[in-house]
Amino acid sequence: MLAKIYCVSTIDLMKNSVSSSKVSRRKFGKVAASAAATAFGFQFIPSRAWGNLTKPTLVGIGIGGKGSTDIKKSEEAGFHVIGLVDVVDAAKLPSSAANHRRMRGMVEIRQKYPNVPFWTDYREMLAELGDKVDAVTVSTPDHHHFHASVMAMRAGKHVYCQKPLTHGIWEARMMARVAAETGVKTQMGNQAHANNHLRRCVELIRAGIIGKVREVHTWTNRPIWPQGFARPPQKEATPEWLDWNQWIGPAGWVDYNENIAPFAWRGWWEFGTGALGDMACHIMDMPFWAIMPGSPKNVQGTQAGATDISPPINSKIVWEFGPNAHTHSRGFRFHWYDGYVDAHFDRETWQLVKKSEEYNHPPAAVMDRRPFSDYGSVIVGENGKLFFDRFRNTWVVNPTSAIDGFAWPAKSIPRATGEDNYKEWLDAIEGKVVKGQSDFEYAGPFTETILLGVLAQRVPNEKLQWDAENMEVVGRPELKPHIRRDYRQGWGVDADMRSALGALF
After folding, report:
1. Domains contained in the chain, CATH given
2. pLDDT of residue 95
3. Distance CA 108, CA 129 (A)
4. For the whole model, what pTM was predicted?
5. What distance in Å separates the CA atoms of residue 248 and residue 227, rounded to the nearest whole number?
């Protein structure tokens, strides 16, 4: 019954979504009719099944930066691109802006698909295309991931969403739930998840190559974008090629300035999740997947440079988990380190300025005197350590005696076609595999854990006890707005969804 409630409420969600847009009554009628058919139990049939196309159809939501890669890689995997969505209309860019390195991807995508329809609002796209589109990539700033993905899933679209899966903890929980209830095929954009060597290391850790896990240490030298500022930059005139109202979307309003978009939004609590949200879905992925620890018991962070509006310049986070089959009987700790230790924010240049190349990283004793790279992970077990780099298949176990007599396990995790998570997503859609291995069933809880670390950055030096069932920090009701945020007018979750999910969340 719950799945039907989701489908019926699609009508209300779309009604709310398009009420302030330019979608006509005729266009809305198509969406409502399609949603109603789903509500009454009709199976979603992709457009290619009617003989219109030989490939599943795809719309790219967000076409700049990683978005351009997601669209190109999806097409290479076997999708047919039929629509593009972005708040920047690259066709209107003056040459001075079109040649900017942050804009080139958008310009190239528009030039590659000159006859493909373009929108600045994904709500309008979903209303207009209806069942003509089978799947979407969501490659927007973090604060749009939830809305774009949920609207697409509830309209029957398969979704590939960039990392982190969501901007907020509650959103991550709901994304996993909506994916499960709608039955669409999903994938999060942590591309190395599809690498054979990463999947092999997951199997080896589970098989006990270093014994039961005691600790995990992961790190990055990022942020490399501005963070730690105390007030917004001065208001500037919004360019005619940018739909700034749509860029802000569900988040709190901030006046336009080129130092916010298209790149530096990661350094805003309101729009991004800082270095932790940006990089942890890559770097923490292998050990988290290997252990599958469930929800943490608590999390604690230390940081430098955070303000009311911006994440820290550097930080350290520790999550404590209970035991499972892969860990020590007392559980284990998961450590995260980020940022240059002596960097500071320079308001004149709106940049982070660092005095040296020293960044937060694990103690030397953890590394066994091995050299540091800009990012990496160390999994510490009872019998040894595994050193891992997601881009290299030259993982190392120390001491080497740990593998003496080790029974090398058979492969237990399906390998992705071409070690490509876009192809794996397509294989799932076409029924060649059951699911993508970084689908929202996995990515939701993983992102939720990471975002608990982001929450800990807001209240440093305090151990936050996490009540996963009630989705709250024990004894800290004032933190609820950081777990489940309020949305800007016109972007709220519809009443039917609130009613259907109230008991679950």
Report:
1. 2-193+422-438+485-501 (3.40.50.720), 195-226+274-416+450-478 (3.30.360)
2. 83
3. 23
4. 0.89
5. 19
pLDDT at 275: 97
Q: How does pLDDT run across 103-144, given as a tens digit for each residue?
A: 888 999 999 999 999 999 999 999 999 999 999 999 999 999
Bridge partners of 135?
58, 158
Question: Quick check: 159 and 153 in contact, CB under 8 A?
Answer: yes
Q: pLDDT of 143-197, one tens digit each?
A: 999 999 999 999 999 999 999 999 999 999 999 999 999 999 999 999 999 999 9
pLDDT at 20: 35
Whether residue 262 has a cis bond before it, omega within 30° of 0: yes
**CB burial of residue 286 (10 Å; 0-12, 13-18, 19+):** buried
Instruction: Specify the pLDDT at position 104.
Output: 87
CA distances from 15 to 129, 178, 332, 435 (A): 16, 19, 47, 31
Distance between CA atoms of residues 310 and 293, nearest Å: 30
**pLDDT (tens digit per residue) in 324-369:** 999 999 999 999 999 999 999 999 999 999 999 999 999 999 999 8
Residue 189, classed as helix, strand or coil, is strand
Say which amino acid occupies 109.
I
- CA 122 to CA 120: how far, in whole Å? 7
Asked whether 321 and 298 are in contact (CB, 8 A), the reply is: no
Which position has the higher pLDDT, 395 or 18?
A: 395
User: Which is it for the CA torsion 256, 259, 260, 261, positive or negative?
Assistant: positive
| Closest to 417 (Cα-Cα) out of 405, 430, 401 | 430
Structure tokens belonging to residue 152: 């697409």
Residues paired with residue 359 on neighbouring β-strands, in sequence order: 340
Using the predicted structure, report yes or no on whether residue 203 has a pLDDT greater than 80: yes
How buried is 15 (Cβ within 10 angstroms: 0-12 exposed, 13-18 middle, 19+ buried)? middle
All residues at 6 or more sequence positions from 431 whose CB lies less than 8 Å from its CB, including other chains = none
Mean pLDDT of the chain: 88
**SS3 assignment, position 82:** strand
DSSP symbols for 412-462:
-SPPPGGG-HHHHHHHHHTTSSS--TTSHHHHHHHHHHHHHHHHHHHSTT-
Q: For residue 96, what is the DSSP state?
A: H
Q: What is the CA radius of gyration of the chain?
A: 23
* Integer angstrom CA distances of residue 23 from 11, 407, 445, 462: 14, 61, 35, 48
- Whether cis (ω within 30° of 0) applies to the bond prior to 56 is no
385-388 and 375-381: which strand pairing? antiparallel
**In the predicted model, is pLDDT for residue 312 greater than 60?**
yes
Compute the distance between CA of residue 393 and CA of residue 371 in angstroms, rounded to an integer: 17
